[in-house]
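Record passed on underneath.
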Amino acid sequence: GAAAPGVDDSIHPLKYTWDVWFSQRQAGTKSNKKDEKAGAPVQKEKESREDWEGGVVKLGGFSSIESLHPFLAHLVPPSALPASTHSTYSLFSTDADEAAPAATNLICDYNVFRSSIAPAWEDSANVGGGRWVVRLRKGVADRVWEEVVYALVSERIGGDDERVGDKVNGVVLSVRRDEDILSLWVAPSSRTERDIIRDSL
């Protein structure tokens, strides 16, 4: 049938508006007692809340399938982020004359969360919740990230159970030198709801 006057039937709105965040930080290292005694600078093991807040940047948001696609298309692919370029190069480069990028100790995170929820455990929607974690070998994150984001925002995670879709707050892809880590963040939920979410991954 024809669309109602003034309604654009080519737009497919999502149930929620979603925000995309990016952060980049140095990976922590465990302190060495010998270095501490010798007076050598020691990198802190865990970043502070202030450091994290200063390093996370909101890139924008989307509220329809049509606005999601160009957004993802313009993001730097996970395999091209600084934390990944050395590892990805060694997996896919066959040109021995080309110099490999220097190894880096950076961690780069992409976060997609419902717009009312910050990608932080202190956000009230995340307090008391948890996450499902999938460790990815290098070279597969580009495809997996895109598939999970599409599944998340189109409410395919959890199938037809609407209670489960409302329990998923967001997804984080943490790109590291040796592996990538995908985390699905969930609000406080029942064991049954958590199992449904796990089984849909």
